[in-house]
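quick one, 312 residues, struct below
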Amino acid sequence: MSNPRDALTPDSLAMLQVIADTGSFAAAARSLGLVPSALTYRVRHIEEALDVLLFDRRSRQAQPTEAGLELLREGARLLQDIDSVAHRVRRVATGWEPQLTIVADGALARGPLFDLVEAFYALAPPTRLKLRDGILSGTLEVLSSGRADLAIGVAVNASNVAGIQLQELGELVFCLAVAPHHPLAQMTEPISDDTLLQHRVVAVADSALRDTTSIGLLGGQQVLTVDSMAAKVEAMLRGLGYGFLPQGMVHEHAASGRLVVRSVVRPARTLRAHYAWTTSGHASPGRALQWWLEKLAHPTTRAALLENHQEL
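---
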């Protein structure tokens, strides 16, 4: 018996589709420029390789069997996949990367980030996107370790890391927020560090594997540590602790009354953020990375990702 891989070639799958479309072996043979006996031989070769009957030959019409219909469906999908792969390969040859991995710090606004993803896909590029989350120094670590090509929201010093280009994104402004039923929601403002020390703070763990960074914690304070900004917000909404959040992240919850913004004695918390990308010698970035860098160069894009709301 023949190997099914040898029998199921793109040409043979296309031939089977012609038979199904024309409705007879004779008509299909004329369409393909073959003598009927040659066409019949090729079909039998496929049937023997699969050990199934693909067409019911009891009538003058070539009616696909259930197995034949399934092969036609899967064959059409495989032929489309082959065309898509060929298209992607041709596009990659013009300078598009096969894949671009982007790590974004959890403090950045996700809506504007996915607006960029949507605009990128509108170009119909052959590049596959992979998005990763990072927190604090972990965002840079993913980039410097080669697991990402572009990092957005780098909040630690990366100027001394070889092979990395750095540009300023802007300043993230944080504010203290608590659930309305949390004791701090009723405290006289501005709230001192001594008062904060008496209450649990919700913090997001640095996603770096080593040399982790902590920001805004008081010595001896009770801390609930979570691994994402989404988990931090959920814990705060439940009143499990207070926390400092980027203005854009707290704005919607504050407007709906689910969180209350409180002023504190300590200076306002800000974080200078950057975006960074890897370089390979003197090679220019691929077309996908170039597109993202051009978008990040626009002040409106950077402001949207930081999403600071001065009215809070």
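The first strand starts at residue 55 and ends at 56.
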